[in-house]
Amino acid sequence: MSTLFIRLPSKAAADNTPHWITLSCPFALATGAAIEREGAAPLADLAPIIARAQRVVLLLAASDVTLLQVRVPPLSPARLKAALPNLLEDQLMSDPAESVFVAGPSVNGLRTVAVAQRGWLDILSHTLLAYGARNLSAIPAQFCLPHEEGVVTAAASAHAGDIDLTVRLSESGGIGLPIFPDDAAEEPREVVQTLCAVVPTAPITLYVAQEKVPAYEHVVGQILALDQRITVYADNWSRWIAGAGQQSMNLFNALGGAGGAVLDWRPWRWPAILLLLVLLVNAIGLNIDWLRKKREAETLRNVMLQTYKVAYPGDTVVRDPVLQMRQKIVAAQRDSGQPATDDFVVLTASFGAAWELAAGGRPAAGMIAGLDYRDKSLFLRIKPGSVLPVEPLKAALAQRNFAMAPAGSNLWQIRSVK
Questions:
Q1: How far, in Å, CA of 402 to CA of 398, rounded?
Q2: Which of 187, 215, 273, 417 is at 20 to 30 A from 130, Cα to Cα?
């Protein structure tokens, strides 16, 4: 998965610029641990890369994120989110409604809570989403620096002449200090002096740009000639990416899903269009087939209706020509002395013939308690304990176009299937 990492300048530096969107931001495009591209560019120029990346991770300036320690009782995530503004209200200088709160894991009953300005995060999320970002994360930069027990880690980043000093004091603590040097040549001295003031005794590992390492080492040699406790190294993106991968704090989560993952429909655009076309073709084909069958049904009904009217011109009301024709045929058969297939005589005669074939000469009176005729069906009432040759009897009746089915306890129904 391709991930775009962007180190943002501090809000203080952005406020000093008429158009903060034009500030150059260091960035790195990585797939896993492999860095494909790195450099520095304004966010507007990074829009094509933002749109292509599967994930965008903002490393917020440490001076824009305040880390607070608070003792919190065991609470569900939803209740903890609701309780944090009230628990931290006394430690804030602004209205809690203007801030977002994200709590880290509990360690010995204490939680580290990251606090950032809501308005600034809203601007960032809306800007990046407008550029096509699909999965956004915002991580405090101080947590992306490596932590070593007993050693303070710091990094100095330049943005349009201003310096963002990021300091990680402990595993769960860190601060950020914006520095505005009057002269670029004074940058190393002001950074080292600020570090010495913030961390008066502990050893410090300081990361700066590759080209500035000699200048910082010279200033460290001058200021700390007798106590070389600051070690200067060249900064690189691999260190920041490794630190960001270990963090679960995402300040965008506190914005109500503004920075959450968004499904990218672009790779599915052509398959979706093809699917819609297939559905459209099928729908058109089904409608054409339905119209054809409907016309065939209307033609067939008109033919049957015309045939019925020719055969029975005296009938003026014809609702179902097939049913009415059958009724006329049955009535004609009865008038001519031919019995119908569902008459009592035909049913009993057919049953008798089928019984002779299926029962093997056994008398029906030993098993049948009675015969009933109703609803054009013959009902056999079987004596309790009798074993009726059901399957042979069904087969024999089927040869004569009759069906046999159970109609209750010891009761069977025989009817015509014509």
A1: 5
A2: 273
d(CA 41, CA 23): 8
Q: What's the CATH code of the domain at 233?
A: 3.30.420.380
More confident residue, 409 or 160: 409
Structure pTM?
0.61
How is 137-184 classified by DSSP, letter by letter? Answer: EEEEGGGGS--BTTBEEEEEEEETTEEEEEEE-SSS-EEEEEE--SSG
Same domain, 147 and 96: yes
| Domain-embedded: residue 48 | yes
Q: Identify the bridge partners of residue 68 per DSSP, sorted by sequence position.
A: 113
Whether the per-residue pLDDT at 34 is higher than 80: the answer is: yes
- C-alpha separations of 154 from 18, 196, 273, 349 in Å: 29, 11, 52, 108
Euclidean distance between CA atoms 348 and 186, whole angstroms: 120
Tally the domains of the chain. 3
Task: Give the span between the Cα atoms of 351 and 415, in whole angstroms.
Answer: 10
Element (H, E) at 356: helix 344-358
3-state DSSP assignment of residue 95 = coil
Under DSSP, the state recorded for 110 is E
Domain holding 360, by residue range, is 344-416
The H-or-E segment that residue 27 falls in is strand 25-31
pLDDT, mean over the chain: 84
> 147 and 176 share a domain?
yes
